[in-house]
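Workshop exercise sheet. Pairs work together: one partner reads the sequence aloud, the other fills in the structure field after running the prediction. Swap roles for the next sheet.
Pair: D.N. / O.F.
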Amino acid sequence: MGEQPIYTTRAHVFQIDPSTKKNWVPASKQAVTVSYFYDSTRNSYRIISVDGTKVIINSTITANMMFTKTSQKFGQWADSRANTVFGLGFTSEQQLSKFAEKFQEVKEAAKMAREKSQDKVDIRSTRIDLNNDTFDFKQDSGPASPGSKQASSFNGTDDEKIFKVGPEMLLMKTEHESAAEQSSSSRKWEAELQSLREKNSILVEDLHQSSTKMDVWKKQVSACKEESDALRQKIAQLEYQYQEAGQEQQRNAELSVRVQQLEAELRDKEQEVENLRKQAEIIPQLMAECDNITSKLQVTESRKVELESRMDVKCYIDDISQVTESRKVELESRMDVKCYIDDIS
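Structure field:
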């Protein structure tokens, strides 16, 4: 079947700076496709990512690898074969969690495949040694022989260990397997190249759509900026109007106080006018009394002439005169009040 993708996602790819071993260097200008691949012929797992025609991730997963979440949307793992550290930036925490879970699953599968591969290699090596009578294996009751050291020697990494054997049969078998692997690898790379071409065309189309969306977003941002400037100007005008309204409100409060004072003064004046009006209503009665007294005074004057000869009449006339004078003074004061009322009206 060859190598097949088992999980695919999109992320921004980074690699550790080889000079500082601290800073991250972007390996892609934008989010690219990152895929898990399983090779059934080698029973191995790889993480592969391609940016255009450039392979930016080609990492074989081993049992001793560890994927670490350094933030809510960023994770990393170290690859000793590539002598680097890869970092992936995702658009959401869910994508990062899914990728980490898949990494753990693939790691466990690689560990199991490694253990099975070692068991098969041990069994095959034991059978070959027994058939060729080349190596001696250590027994529980006997000392170790030189052949045991040669059988326990390894060449390669921890993930792929190959015994060094000398028989021609094993060498021919190895060459045959190598040719088969090269043929399978060639077909695999052709299929992968075709898949990458298809993905590249999809990415180009996505890039074109992204450029179109970017132009639309730029126009929207420009429109939002213009609208924001207009809103700022309107806010400044409203603040100025608010300040003027505050001053006007203060003036209105002062005018309200002045109006209340004038209303109080007006009520006082109205009360005073009402009192004068009541006094004016009494004036006709006083005038009538004055006329009556005047007529009586005339009568009294006429009788005064008659009573001048009489002493008793004289005293009476004096009394009447005093009374008349007092009434006259009172009438004159009331006449003055009436004139004052007429002047006010």
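Discussion prompt: Confidence is low (pLDDT under 50) at residues 128-175. What would you look at next?
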